[in-house]
Design a protein that fits this description.
Blueprint lengths: L15 H15 L6 E2 L11 H14 L15 H12 L11 E4 L2 H7 L10 E5 L3 H9 L15 E5 L17 E5 L11 H14 L2 E5 L25 E6 L1 H4 L7 E4 L5 E3 L5 E3 H12 L5 H8 L4 H27 L4 E3 L5 E5 L6 H12 L1 E2 L1 E2 L10 E5 L4 H14 L1
Parallel strand pairs: 1-13, 3-4, 3-5, 5-6, 6-7
Antiparallel strand pairs: 2-8, 7-8, 9-10, 11-12, 12-15, 14-15
Bound molecules: D-malate.
Length: 409
């Protein structure tokens, strides 16, 4: 018999979203006529922008012709897409990122996990609490933690509490950590970090020679000019941060799959013997060994996001979801709940009534209103007493869900 990776046995429960899916399926089979409205997982509902569809159709036609057919592409992504990203997402915003520092991939979730391949097991890793569970679970799988305690916190990880008192932006760690996961706009709380707050983290990383893994998957939802879209807008960040971005939420690519990770060439790590190594070289080595690139057709679709037409269409998509977020915020606030996030972010983070445990509130909402949210406890112990509502939905569903939920409160 083959040995298994024992670290998997430390994982507390199933991954959050499949567990929600299991409960919703059980409910739906027992109540086949119930119209369930899913505001749990942050999955987009609106069709892809027309400019992306047109570009993908054209790319499919190229595949039908020997002269324009493409086999394997460059693992790191086609130059046309890497250049469009560097120019529009970074250089146009004053951030110094070059096309060859961009690695196109099939998802930010995958890259947040994959990055652990190039990081050593001795790092002290800090995560926020609540946290996107992928950061924690992949560190557990990689053997970077001990067992979980009764609260579900893994030994060896440093948890940085984000709560209403600190505006859901945690304080700096008291002790030195080597790797820090930050996510802004935040999943799950919807909180955003200001330029000053992010600059404080960059300074900490410089002083402690720490690495920031900056998840900016929701940057397209930022409308406030005081909130940075990229960590590279902060001076010095090139020496301390890797950034993850995605077309999933920006342009509706959750089912189409296209994302990218930025690894600046200035970023250094060290070997156990104290030698300095550039992370770019390691990431490039990993990416080209383990990945064969995103399909040409999809990369052409992603490139079209940056066309004038694509930009207009993407803005309309974002406005649609942000308006949903406002409707959720307003309805739940009016009904007497305390609501955070939902501004510059597609998630509303809502205190449960009378501190009801979040899975209980989830079950009550599902059974009594047929509306699905995400229990805050699934994001860590500091998420207990909260649920998350996703704004990714049709307007009709959001209106109906809010009517049903507020009628029950
Ligand atoms: C979420 O609902 O938190 C996201 O959809 C998860 C993801 O993007 O992987």
């Amino acid at each position: 018999m083959a040995y298994v990776n024992d670290n998997y046995l430390k994982l507390k429960a199933g991954y959050l979203f499949p567990e929600i899916g299991r409960r919703v399926s059980a409910f739906a089979s027992a109540n086949p006529t119930a119209k369930v409205i899913r505001m749990g997982i942050g999955d987009v509902t609106e069709p892809l922008p027309g400019a992306c569809i047109a570009a993908m159709h054209k790319a499919v036609d190229e595949m039908a012709n020997r002269a324009t057919f493409k086999g394997y592409g460059p693992e790191q992504g086609y130059d046309f897409l890497r250049e469009a990203i560097a120019k529009n997402d970074y250089q146009a915003k004053g951030a110094n990122v070059t096309a060859d520092e961009i690695f196109v991939s099939d998802g930010s979730k995958c890259d947040c996990a994959n990055v652990l391949d190039i990081l050593g097991a001795k790092n002290v890793v800090a995560v926020t609490d609540p946290v996107y569970p992928v950061y924690v679970d992949t560190n557990v799988m990689a053997g970077h933690t001990g067992d979980a305690d009764a609260k579900g916190e893994y030994k060896g990880l440093v948890y940085l509490r984000a709560d209403a008192a600190n505006g859901f932006v945690p304080k700096l760690p008291q002790d030195k950590v080597d790797v820090i996961y930050l996510c802004s706009p935040n999943n799950p709380t919807g909180a955003t970090m200001t330029r000053d707050q992010l600059a404080m983290w960059v300074r900490y990383a410089q002083e402690q020679q720490a690495l920031i893994l900056f998840d900016a998957a929701y940057e397209a939802f930022i409308t406030d000019p005081a909130v940075p879209h990229s960590i590279y807008e902060i001076p010095g960040a090139r020496e301390v941060a890797i950034e993850f971005r995605s077309f999933s939420k920006t342009a509706g690519f959750t089912g189409t799959r296209c994302a990218f990770t930025v690894v600046p060439k200035d970023l250094m790590g060290k070997t156990e013997s104290g030698e300095t190594v550039d992370l770019y070289r390691l990431w490039n080595r990993r990416h080209t060994t383990k990945f064969n690139g995103v399909s040409y057709i999809i990369q052409r679709g992603a490139e079209a996001v940056y066309s004038a037409e694509g930009q207009t269409q993407v803005k309309a998509l974002i406005t649609h979801y942000l308006t949903n977020a406002t409707l959720i915020r307003d309805a739940l606030t009016k009904a007497g709940l305390k609501v955070f996030g939902g501004v510059n972010a597609p998630y509303a983070w809502v205190e449960t009534p009378n501190k009801t445990p979040s899975w209980d509130f989830f079950d009550t909402l599902l059974n009594e209103t047929h509306v699905v949210c995400t229990p805050g406890a699934g994001f860590g112990s500091a998420g207990e007493g909260y649920v998350r509502f996703s704004a990714f939905n049709s307007r009709a569903n959001v209106d109906e869900a809010m009517q049903r939920v507020t009628a029950k409160l």
